[in-house]
Design brief:
By secondary structure, the chain is mostly beta strands. It folds into two domains: 83 residues, no CATH class; 134 residues, Apoptosis, Tumor Necrosis Factor Receptor Associated Protein 2, Chain A (Sandwich), CATH 2.60.210. 12% of the residues lie in helices and 53% in strands. It is built from four helices and 15 strands. The strands form four sheets. A five-stranded antiparallel β-sheet has the order 6-7-15-12-13. Strands 8, 9, 10, 11 and 14 form a five-stranded antiparallel β-sheet that branches. A three-stranded antiparallel β-sheet has the order 3-2-5, with no helix packed on it. This is MATH domain-containing protein. Pfam families: MATH.
Amino acid sequence: MDFFSYYLRCEKEECENKKWSIETEFTLKLVSHNGKSLMKSGKYTFEKADGFGWFIFISWNDLESDYVVNDSIVVEAHVKIIKINDSPCIDSQCIENESQKIFLLNHTVENVSSIREGGYYFTKTEKRFNIPWRLKIERRNGFFGLYIWCDKEQSNRRDWTIDMEQDLRLVSLNGQSLSLKGTCTFKEARGSGWEQFLRWDDMEKKYMVNDSIIIEARVKIIKMTGCEEDSTFSLLLFSLSQYF
């Protein structure tokens, strides 16, 4: 006898020396166009890219006689994530690559529902290639906005510019992601991104898990001018002062 097998599969990427687990409760459902349905529920903790379900969900003959309409079936998976243990899956070579000036900013935003219309949230500032950066999200006119923010101060001694390519990402803890790419030139402290990255309610439905989301910026700096570390000049002044 032939059987219809049905599985829920997690395709989260695996990283060397990085462990993660996702504890789930789920129901797999087979639905006929006439309203008839068959469901089975279970619990499983995913610790690698893997599938879990039932090899014998229903006999193939019963599937064809009771659920196939116009050579089609409807399958559903209802999943509740109980607990996630994870750290960002980042190759250390991608955090800051000096030869190509490539870097990654990654942050988990919690209590997303506390951001009201017109409000915003900044991540902590992190230095990449001696330049301070942070990420910003905002809620405005029903949209979710996402930006990368350059916090380099203006200099009285020289102008500076940073030409770069940016890939801003919204990532769900269940692995779903949305990415928008663009180019930008910074000449002052400001942000670059999208005011209407997606609708706020779509963000809540598709990307928010346990009131949390993950935001990322993947950046490739094409050219930097006038961005030499100011501490070099300060150190020179300090050294010269020893002679007076």
